[in-house]
Predict the structure.
Amino acid sequence: MTDTATALVKLDNVVKHFPLRRRGFGPREFVHSVDDVTIRLDGGRSLGIVGESGSGKSTLARIMLGLQEPDSGQVDVAGVRVTGLKRPASGSPASNARTTRPSGARRRSSSRIRTR
């Protein structure tokens, strides 16, 4: 495809950093999981992402799918900007559609974890 065609998925200068646990009173440190990534994926094409364990492949995939927000940069899907979109408010029809479980299904509770 040409540069004038709309890309199916386009990432521009995407950055995602995760904070490390603070030790003492020193400055906060970060893991640079995804650092300044730019990708253009046109329709009918495939993309393979390879790298060492912990290199940010899964984080990049979650950002591409809209499951995780980047710290900076932008993501477009079929020409529509998807970064910075507001999530549906709790209780709205859109948020209920994602959390509805079949009747009889119970939610697992984390309250089983006990501390002594």
Q: What stands out?
A: Confidence is low (pLDDT under 50) at residues 94-101, 107-116.
